[in-house]
Write a structure and sequence with these properties.
203 residues; single chain; mainly alpha; globular
Length: 203
C-alpha cells in the first residue's frame, strides 16, 4: 500500500465516521445523558462493530453477509429497542433526581454492546467498505499486513471521531445541574434516544 493511498483512505474513513448518523447520535445522546465515559465506551463498541464489517468486506464476504441478513436485522432492532428503552426511562425520570441518578447507570459493557449493535445493525456499511476500497486501494497487491492496517485505520477513525463527540456531549452534560436544567436534559436526551432508536429501526 502506497503512502498516498493510505492517506487517502484515512481521510475517506474519517469523513465517513464523522458524518451525522445513528452512530453519532447514539454517542451524543449517551454523552449528554450519562456522561463522557459511557459515551466513549459506546463509541469503542461502534469502532469494534465497524472493524468486523470492514474485515468481512476485506474477506469478500459481502454476499455471505447478505445471505445472513437476519442476523444484522436482529442486532439492529436490539440496539434500537435498547435506545428507545433508555429514552423512555429518561422521560420518566424525576426532575429532582441528582445528575448521577437521572438515568439508570448501567454497566460499561452494556454501553459497549449498544455501540457494537448499532454498528453491526447497519449491513450497508459492508457495501460502503467494499465499494470504497477498490477506488483507493490496490486490492490485488494488498498483503495481510495491509489488511490489518486497514482495520486499524477504521478503528482509529471511529475512536477519534466518536471520542470527540463523546467529549463534547460529556462537557455539555455538566451544565445541567439545577432541577429545571435536569428536566430539560431528561426531555432532550430522552427524545433524542427514542428518535435515534426509531431511525435505526426504520433504516
Amino acid at each position: 500500500m502506497t503512502l498516498t493511498a493510505f492517506l487517502a483512505y484515512c481521510l475517506a474513513i474519517t469523513l465517513a465516521a464523522a458524518t451525522p448518523g445513528p452512530a453519532m447520535f447514539t454517542v451524543i445522546t449517551n454523552g449528554v445523558a450519562r456522561g463522557f465515559l459511557r459515551a466513549f465506551v459506546a463509541g469503542m463498541g461502534i469502532a469494534a462493530g465497524d472493524a468486523v464489517l470492514v474485515t468481512l468486506a476485506l474477506l469478500g464476504l459481502v454476499a455471505l453477509a447478505q445471505t445472513f441478513e437476519w442476523v444484522f436485522l436482529l442486532l439492529k432492532y436490539a440496539g434500537a429497542a435498547y435506545l428507545i428503552f433508555l429514552g423512555i426511562k429518561m422521560w420518566r425520570a424525576a426532575a429532582a433526581q441528582s445528575a448521577a441518578q437521572r438515568i439508570p447507570q448501567t454497566g460499561l459493557s452494556r454501553s459497549f454492546l449498544l455501540g457494537a449493535s448499532v454498528a453491526l445493525g447497519n449491513p450497508k456499511a459492508i457495501l460502503f467498505h467494499a465499494s470504497i476500497m477498490p477506488l483507493i486501494l490496490n486490492l490485488d497487491t494488498m498483503t495481510f499486513a495491509d489488511g490489518l492496517l486497514v482495520v486499524a485505520v477504521v478503528v482509529g477513525a471511529n475512536i477519534l471521531t466518536m471520542g470527540i463527540y463523546a467529549a463534547l456531549a460529556g462537557r455539555a452534560s455538566g451544565w445541567f445541574r439545577t432541577p429545571e436544567r435536569m428536566r430539560l436534559i431528561n426531555r432532550f436526551a430522552g427524545s433524542a434516544m427514542i428518535g435515534t432508536g426509531a431511525l435505526i429501526a426504520a433504516r
